[in-house]
Amino acid sequence: MIVMHRESPGGAAVMERSEPMMHWLGGLRSRGQLIDGDPIVPGGHMLVRADDVVIDKPINGTGTTAGITGYFIIDALSESEAVAIARSCPVLTEGVTVILRRVGRVG
After folding, report:
1. Which of 44, 49, 91, 102 is deepest in the core (most CB within 10 A)?
2. What predicted TM-score, i.e. pTM, was given to this entire model?
3. Average pLDDT over residues 64-90
């Protein structure tokens, strides 16, 4: 899974529509490497349990989780191939951090 993270607010919609990004996603799709992916819209909630109470902390455009702008599920044969795919993402030059994580299977 590739998770896009931008430190400064804004830019998610522009990033997702940029021509280089669309070309990159099209290449992944044509090679059968793009399984799913979407932008993540601003806002949301982070639920935290503290002292046996669940606290709802709205995500309001600041903090670590606020900068998550999108995700892509990719299919790679190895970790090195997944790193190469993530490294080729064109928005790395636009102040976006690309986080690569392996998705496990339950059962």
Report:
1. 91
2. 0.77
3. 90
